[in-house]
Design goal:
CATH class of the largest domain: Alpha Beta
Cofactor: pyridoxal 5'-phosphate
Enzyme class: transferase
Organism: Apatococcus lobatus
Number of strands: 14
Strand order of the largest sheet: 2-10-9-8-5-3-4
Structural class: alpha/beta
CATH superfamily of the largest domain: Type I PLP-dependent aspartate aminotransferase-like (Major domain)
Keywords: Aminotransferase, Pyridoxal phosphate, Transferase
Strand content: 5-15%
Largest sheet: 7 strands, mixed
Protein name: alanine--glyoxylate transaminase
Length: 410
């Protein structure tokens, strides 16, 4: 069989690139032609609040051949992802999936599907992520009760109990790990509290999933969203999501349609097999999900108990070194300090940005500044996933020592 080269003229019976009737055909402009040449990316150790570096195994998975998003072999990969999500969420629920998008996409999917216009949501707002849920829920027509706590503190059970029993909200939102302040929220007893008041418990685990203990079923959590790019050690672009049976029934018994087509879990869930079939909703993020699948497999290989302990050990090592330099935690109550995103007070008179810049230029290490209300008040150091090793923690400590010495603080 002969093969026609691309440069050969097309036969008359082949669709051509000729202009259609009435269309102008000016000369192609090369003013913005580009980019040119292969991409160049510097190598950096990402020890901020995320994204974190991925393992070579995860990176390699993304180079595997593309499959069609409706091909049975890809459905099998999706099934494996759901299995891995059940493990990290610690649930038997069939209602797990990846939302196509970052953690914000998971946030919006939960709000869009669990709240109807006029329903109440109590938002435990202790940082930027609570503030964003407050904003997002109001855009979906919710009656938002914005419950706040002093900076760099967690909510007490008593405060949450009072709010839930008083307002009887459809949803109580809490962020397990508030990455802007480094606060770890205790979730003990809240599942039972919410069930007793007809409330769904929604938890943000974007910077905590896989790094600190989480037991969705045993703790009575109804909905969780997370992000792929932090502790799980996959690239950004996928938001792990879990619904309990109660949350699923709330979705199925809505009185109004979900206001977002893209995030409608009746439709997205149908693509993921929630209804024992596969319905096309959108093109799954094939290569990205390969990476998530490998990250979940690595999590299963290591085991959650070991993974949680590894993160805790590295956090202790970090604080041992920081304390020797006279640095203090932003979160005063030890039980409320987050192991995966650690917040460090910036001492009076220290140029925090100069410390960060020195770490990047001299050590190729990212140390982040504050976010939201902590800008200029704190550094943030992430200990997440593939990066959670003693060697990486020591490099961060070395960068801090050097940066502080340059300012005469050691």
């Amino acid at each position: 069989m002969s093969r026609r080269l691309a440069a050969e003229p097309a036969p008359d019976n082949i669709v051509s690139a000729a202009p259609r009737p009435g269309e102008s055909r000016p000369a192609v402009s090369d003013v913005h032609r580009g980019p040119t040449g292969p991409i160049e990316v510097p190598s950096r150790l990402l020890m901020g609040p995320g994204p974190a570096n991925v393992s070579p195994r995860v990176a390699a998975a993304q180079t595997l051949p593309l499959l069609g998003h409706m091909h049975p072999p890809f459905f099998r990969i999706m099934d494996e992802i759901q299995q891995g999500l059940r493990y990290v969420f610690q649930t038997d629920s069939p209602y797990t999936l990846l939302v196509s998008g970052t953690g914000h996409a998971g946030m919006e999917a939960c709000i869009a599907n669990l709240i109807e216009p006029g329903e109440k949501i109590v938002v435990g707002n202790k940082g930027i992520w609570g503030a964003r849920v407050t904003d997002l829920a109001s855009r979906y027509g919710a009656d938002v009760i914005d419950l706040q706590t002093p900076p760099a503190t967690a909510f007490s059970y008593e405060t949450l109990e009072q709010a839930v029993t008083e307002h009887k909200p459809a949803v109580l939102f809490l962020c397990q790990g508030e990455s802007s302040t480094g606060v770890h929220q205790n979730l003990a007893g809240l599942g039972e509290l919410c069930r007793a008041n007809g409330t769904l418990l929604l938890v943000d685990t974007v910077c905590t999933l896989g790094g600190i203990p989480l037991h969705a079923d045993d703790w009575g959590i109804d909905a969780i969203y997370s992000g792929s790019q932090k502790v799980l050690g996959a690239p950004p672009g996928a938001a792990p999501l879990f619904f309990s049976e109660r949350a699923f029934q709330k979705l199925r018994n809505r009185k109004t349609p979900v206001a977002s087509y893209y995030f409608d879990l009746n439709l997205v869930g149908d693509y993921w097999g929630w209804f024992n079939k596969r319905f096309y909703h959108h093109t799954g993020m094939v290569s990205n999900w390969y990476g998530v699948r490998e990250a979940l497999a690595m999590t299963a290989d290591e085991g959650l108990d070991h993974l949680w302990q590894r993160h805790g050990n590295c956090a202790q090592m970090l604080w041992g070194g920081l304390s020797s330099m006279g640095l203090e935690p932003l979160v005063e109550v030890e039980a409320e300090r987050l192991a995966t995103v650690n917040t460090i007070k910036v001492p009076e008179g220290v140029d925090w940005a100069a410390v960060n810049a020195n770490a990047m230029s001299k050590y190729s290490v990212e140390i982040a500044g504050g976010l939201g209300g902590t800008v200029g008040k704190a550094w943030r150091v992430g200990i997440m996933g593939y990066n959670a090793t003693p060697a990486n923690v020591e490099l961060v400590l070395a960068a801090f020592r050097d940066g502080l010495r340059q300012q005469g603080r050691l």
